[in-house]
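<instruction>
Derive structure tokens from the sequence
<data>
Labelled lines for chain and fold:
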Amino acid sequence: MESLDPATLRRFVFKVQFLPMTIVQARVTFVRLFGQIAPPTIDGIHPLTPGDFAVVARKAKVLEESMPESLVAMLASEVAAKPGISRVRIGFG
């Protein structure tokens, strides 16, 4: 939102800012989408969004991937591909 011109913002009736998921939200989403408990390494991936999970769920289906650590690695790759994200920490860094 900060990068939008104030004149542009005035033209929107509703201004909604979506924040990244919390650790709890990410863990719940992992269970809902993949049907298994998220490994602890998911806690080190930030900022995760529902869109990251949606992309990984589609990839996992095509690749027939269901191993939790592989799914977390795929989520980390999605986060790392975002503009402005320099490094994703996984584990006990």
Q: What stands out?
A: Residues 20-93 form one domain. The chain has one domain: 20-93. The radius of gyration is 15 Å.
